[in-house]
From TrEMBL:
CDD domains reported in the protein's UniProt record: M1_APN
Protein name: Aminopeptidase N
Source organism of the structure: Parazoarcus communis SWub3 = DSM 12120
Enzyme class: hydrolase
Coiled coil: none
Domain Aminopeptidase N-like N-terminal residues, every copy: 105-188
Domain called Peptidase M1 alanyl aminopeptidase C-terminal: residue spans: 565-888
Signal peptide extent: none
NCBIfam families: pepN_proteo (TIGR02414)
Pfam families the record matches: DUF3458 (PF11940), DUF3458_C (PF17432), Peptidase_M1 (PF01433), Peptidase_M1_N (PF17900)
Protein's GO biological process: proteolysis
Length: 889
């Protein structure tokens, strides 16, 4: 474990290293407890830096020897995981021999074992746990790697790039030698040595090169790789067409591993994936799993250009690769959905994807931006970089790129990308370099836009409007304000693209004409707000319109607009922008749920039920869109809108809403279940997925309402399901009801999938997320505790922890925050237990309570001692210490 008091690292302190590495030759003799790593690296003076020693980082390494040009170094200093070596001349050969223990490495960072195989994870700072190295992304070197292992245990030996040679060694061992022709930073190094088999495909790139694609998995999973392979091929084609970017290697490999901290990792030519984002077959994966596999495969593949060919100068620039790559994978998924939907359905399909993305942003990033961990997409400081793989860096970062795309237009954006690659291919650069390329390619000044990189907090956008009947003009005043965040009391105005439409009383969009313009133009246009407040006057209207602001969610802001029930219902029915139509429904639900939670209302307004009924029964609307529009906002988002946040009161309100909509519209929901049946064998297709999603939602409402017909239908659908999507939706509906029918269904499900780890994750998550519909039922925390004793559960497997504990802490606030404080005590116990094994996973769980000061005084009083207990616990990792320290500060 590293030192408890991690120093804070400042972005402003960046300095180039005096010595970098030109070439590195690595040799591994793989052994479960005593792997020998020989590192021969050619260190060269950095012409961009002043004089200084060679600096190497080292963590959890047993160093057996270190020489410089074959001799013991004249002067070597070592402190806090850093080694400084004085060296003469321009170029020296540094050789380091280290011994490591992959079996004992429970952090899953560096070299570790999983199911008897060897895997690596080096981003962000795992390479220093393999060998001593200047482990920073601005050190780009050429790698050759030799792997030696016992052939029986590890018949497959993989590393980055091209296979140079392989063969037998004495005593049942064998070896393989790999060479990566591209310069890369150490965080993109990877090796895999395991008993795996591959699904292979040979494809031809746009320029006519033949390349080999492989998906490596355990033999029993070979029948679950086809979708990942197809997703990879689609991603390759898309990047060629959308950005003119081609695969640059002769071979591209994806490897699945069941113990992995994150989703996947873009190591050069050797992507390593959490099995959750590779494996899919109809009997075990839901439509959402299929969708996730496609987008994660795409995300990692797209990193090959945005991240690998052009990488980050330092970790503060993480959003340079992550925000951009998330934006790219979002665009890819939207294009794939639109293509499948055909010309008629394309717009709705794109909106469905946009809604998904914004739902994630609101549920995960908005709370982060309003809490003690709030940081700009390019942070100014951190204690532990692993804590900064956040929704802000990823999802808000993608929104910032999307705004550039909106402001510059698709062609301008593409020109900017082309210029970015032409300037920076093969280099480690900054976010400024990216935005400068965008500015230069478009002849634009983007200085003010850069504030998006520097300011934390979710901006509030508000609008005032006035209608002047005499001149038939509509004046809209938009203003912006970003609340203070830790360390940033004052904020400057941002560049905010506001896509807007005006809806006439007949429900039709009005062509827009600003005062001073000769004629009316399109019905949706983008206004660019750059000041704290700006006024726009629209003319040529015949009646007072209803504004539809921020269409397509054109900026990651909170729109503060007073809209009464009637106006929300009107926009739910008429807004031509499907995103805003969905958003109107979300806002309406928010109003209703928060009024119930506050005790201002005790039942659902009839107009609300009618507005939902109208959407539900509008057969012209795409089922996938209806499923989105009829789903309630997440509790996480609603708690953010509640002050003080009272998760238990909110839960009671949500029960009333689910029950009320389920009961009032029971016949309609049943009708939907009937009308939306999908015939034929399962295929992952958005049209079928939309019908299944709407059916699943219908079953949830019906079961929440305790409707007998709905419960019987869910049971029948569970038993007759021909695929996991339908089976799981029916099971989820039963679990989210007061009915005892869920008990045998959960048992049957467990029996059927008892040896399938990924499916069992669903089973754990479902129970951890269960609401308590019945006062007599045990508290969910007791179920979670009992499930931890299940032989399939393990605190050492991140997927299990995320499924059971993560779901309980993050997706079940009504139970987690039960008034007796049992959830909070349990949380502290688990964070402490995880801290000793896997600090990254522990820190993620720890973050579940960071926004504790937003809760009611009673909850705060229950949470504080638990935060303090964790902070006082022994051997606290810097990861957890940073989270808890900030929460308590
Ligand atoms: N770069 C990967 C995510 C990733 C980040 C850190 C990891 O270990 C600490 C692992 C993976 C991505 O964006 O997909
Ligand atoms: Zn990424």
């Amino acid at each position: 474990m590293r030192t408890e008091h991690a120093p804070t690292i400042q972005r402003a302190d960046y300095r180039p290293l005096a010595w970098t590495v030109e070439r590195i030759d690595l040799h591994f003799r793989l052994d479960p407890t005593a792997t020998l790593v020989t590192n021969r690296m050619v260190c060269v003076r950095n012409p961009d830096a002043g004089a200084g020693p060679i600096r190497l980082w080292s963590e959890a390494l047993e160093r057996l020897s270190l020489t410089v040009d074959g001799k013991a170094p004249v002067s070597l200093r070592e402190a806090d995981g850093q080694i400084e070596i004085d060296a003469d001349g321009e170029r020296v050969l540094v050789e380091v021999l280290t011994r490591i223990n992959p079996q004992a490495n429970t952090t899953l960072s560096g070299l570790y074992q999983s199911n008897g195989g060897y895997f690596t994870q080096c981003e962000a700072e795992g390479f220093r746990r393999i060998t001593c190295f200047p482990d920073r992304p601005d050190v780009m070197a050429r790698y050759t790697v030799t792997l030696e292992a016992e052939r029986d245990a590890c018949p497959v030996l993989l590393s980055n790039g091209n296979l140079l040679e392989q063969g037998d060694l004495p005593d049942g061992w064998h070896y393989a030698k790999w060479e990566d022709p591209f310069l890369k930073p150490s965080y993109l190094f990877a090796l895999v040595a395991a008993r795996l088999e591959a699904l292979e495909r040979e494809v031809t790139t746009a320029s006519g090169r033949k390349v080999l694609l492989q998906v490596w998995v355990e033999a029993r999973d070979l029948d679950r790789c086809e979708h990942a392979m197809e997703s990879l091929i689609h991603s390759m084609r898309w990047d060629e067409e959308a950005f003119g970017l081609e695969l640059d290697l002769d071979r591209f490999m994806i490897v699945a591993v069941s113990d992995f901290n994150m989703g996947a990792m873009e190591n050069k030519g050797l992507n390593i994936f959490n099995t959750k984002f590779v494996l899919a077959k109809p009997d075990t994966a839901t439509d959402i799993d299929y969708e996730n596999v496609e987008s994660v495969v795409a995300h990692e593949y797209f990193h090959n250009w945005t991240g690998n060919r052009v990488t980050c100068r330092d970790w503060f620039q993480l959003t340079l690769k992550e925000g951009l790559t998330v934006f790219r994978d979002q665009q890819f998924s939207a294009d794939m959905l639109a293509r499948a939907a055909g010309p008629e359905g394309a717009a709705s399909a794109r909106a469905v994807k946009r809604i998904d993305d914004v739902r994630v942003l609101r549920a995960a990033q908005f709370p982060e931006d309003g809490g003690p961990m709030a940081h700009p997409i390019r942070p100014d400081c951190y204690q532990e970089i692993n804590n900064f793989y956040t929704a802000t860096v990823y999802e808000k970062g993608a929104e910032v790129i999307r705004m550039l795309h909106t402001l510059l237009g698709p062609e301008g954006f593409r020109n900017g990308m082309d210029l970015y690659f032409s300037y920076h291919d093969g280099r480690a650069v900054t976010c400024d370099d990216f935005v400068e390329a965008m500015a230069e390619a478009n002849g634009r000044d983007l200085d003010q836009f850069m504030h998006w990189y520097a300011q934390a907090g979710t901006p509030r956008l508000s609008a005032r409007a006035s209608w002047d009947a005499a001149s038939a003009s509509y004046t809209l005043t938009l203003s912006q304000h970003t609340p203070p965040t830790p360390g940033q009391p004052d904020k400057r105005p941002l560049v905010i693209p506001v896509a807007l439409g005006l809806i006439g009383p007949d429900g039709q969009d009005c062509p827009l004409q600003l005062d001073g313009e000769a004629s009316p133009g399109a019905c949706t246009r983008v206004l660019t707000l750059t000041e704290a407040e700006q006024t726009f006057r629209f003319v040529g209207l015949t009646a007072e319109p209803v504004p539809s602001l921020l269409r397509g969610f054109s900026a990651p802001v909170i729109l503060e607009l007073e809209e009464d029930d009637a106006r929300l219902a009107f926009r739910m029915a008429n807004d031509a922008d499907p995103f805003n139509r969905w958003d109107a429904a979300q806002r309406y639900s928010e109003r209703v749920a928060l009024a119930l939670a506050a005790g201002i209302a005790d039942e659902l307004p009839q107009a609300y039920v009618d507005a939902f009924a109208a959407l539900l029964n509008d057969g012209r609307l795409d089922p996938a869109f209806r499923a989105q529009a009829l789903a309630l906002p997440t509790e996480g988002y609603l708690l953010e809108r509640m002050s003080p946040a009272d998760p238990v009161a909110l839960r009671s309100a949500m029960v009333v809403v689910m029950h009320g909509l389920g009961q009032a519209l029971a016949d309609d929901w049943l009708g939907v279940c009937d009308a939306m049946q999908v015939s034929g064998p399962y295929r992952y297709h958005p049209a079928d997925a939309g019908r299944r999603a709407l059916t699943g939602l219908a079953l949830r409402y019906l079961c929440a309402a305790g409707d007998e017909r709905g419960l019987a239908l869910a049971q029948a659908r569970y038993e007759g399901a021909g695929n996991m999507t339908e089976r799981f939706a029916a099971l989820a509906a039963l679990v989210q009801s007061a009915s005892t029918a869920s008990v045998p269904a959960l048992e049957a499900f467990h029996q059927r999938y008892h040896d399938d780890a990924l499916v069992l994750d669903k089973w754990f998550a479902l129970q951890a997320g269960a609401w308590r519909w019945n006062e007599a039922a045990p508290r969910t925390v007791e179920c979670v505790r009992a499930l931890m004793a299940d032989p399939a559960f393990s605190l050492s497997n991140p997927n299990k922890v995320y499924a059971l504990l993560g779901t309980f802490f993050r997706a079940n606030p009504g139970e987690f925050h039960a008034a007796d404080g049992s959830g909070h005590v349990f949380w502290a116990d688990q964070v402490i237990a995880l801290n000793a094994r896997n600090p990254q996973v522990a820190a993620r769980m720890a973050r579940a309570l960071e926004n504790w000061r937003r809760y009611t005084p009673a909850l705060q009083a229950s949470i504080r001692p638990q935060l303090e207990r964790v902070l006082a616990s022994e051997d606290l990792s810097p990861d957890v210490a940073e989270v808890i320290g900030k929460a308590l500060s």
